[in-house]
Amino acid sequence: MAWELKGPMIEQTAKLQVRRCPQLVQSSTRSARALYFAFHFLVVSTAGRAQEPRDHKGFWISFGPGVGLNLYDVHERDDRFGKAFYVRLGGTPSQKVLVGFEAIYWGRGDLDRGNTTLTVAYYPSRAGGFFGRGGVGTSIIDIGADSRMGVGATAGIGFDTRLTRNFYITPNVDWLLSLFYDSEPDPSLGMVRSANSQLLLTVGVTWH
To answer: Under a CB-based contact definition with an 8 Å cutoff, are residues 145 and 173 in contact?
Structure first.
């Protein structure tokens, strides 16, 4: 008796699944089409924005993390790699020139180095995202509670990849130069090398 009851139930379930298959296929097809058109719209709109001239005006800001290599081994011994971070902000005198303030940093453990400079960025093409940048200001080396100030200079290149009208992802390559003068050794820092430099790779976000 139990077997006779299961047979019709299995048959009805199979028929129901067969009836649902076209609906599932149609639903999956509609979802796939929707995803395709959404992706196509995103690609086309992004490509269109990339071709639009950059509208540089007013206030701008950029910041982001990265990694860096100290090019000298004084105080760093054999471990020259560290973390990096930068913040830049300023104004826009023209479509191809941005001016402002930059703080850029390299660090490892209890050792920190960084430059604070007035910076100028130049875009050769208004439609392109490539730019060169440079600035001069102060430099600092810090180990624990001891620090030393000097003269700093920063030079670098970057590229603005547009996400929205005024929002960009910006990879950067920067070279930092620090100049110090010591007439006598520091109790903690020792004789600070007169010239020191770092090479930094960062990826930030930019708004302007």
So the answer is: no
**Which string of DSSP letters, residue by residue, matches 19-86?**
HHHHHHHHHHHHHHHHHHHHHHHHHHHHHHHHHSPP---S-EEEEEEEEEEES--TTTTT--EEEEEE
pLDDT digits (tens, 9 = 90+) for 15-72: 545 455 555 445 556 555 655 555 454 444 444 454 566 677 889 999 999 999 988 7
Identify the weakest region by mean pLDDT among 41-50, 91-100, 133-142: 41-50
User: Are residues 54 and 95 in contact, defined by beta-carbon separation less than 8 angstroms?
Assistant: yes
Q: What is the per-residue pLDDT for 57?
A: 80
How far from 21 is each of 24, 27, 63, 113, CA to CA, in Å? Answer: 5, 10, 52, 65
Give the separation between CA 26 and CA 186, rounded to whole angstroms: 76
Half-sphere exposure of 31 (CA within 13 A, CB side): 6
Q: Which of 189, 90, 194, 203 is nearest to 148 (CA)?
A: 189
Q: Quick check: 76 and 96 in contact, CB under 8 A?
A: no
**What's the 3-state SS for 131-186?**
EEEEEEEEEEEEECCEEEEEEEEEEEEEECEECCCCEEEEEEEEEEEEECCCCCCE
- Measured CA to CA, the distance from residue 85 to residue 152 in angstroms comes to 16
Taking residue 177's Cβ as centre, other Cβ atoms within 10 Å add up to 18
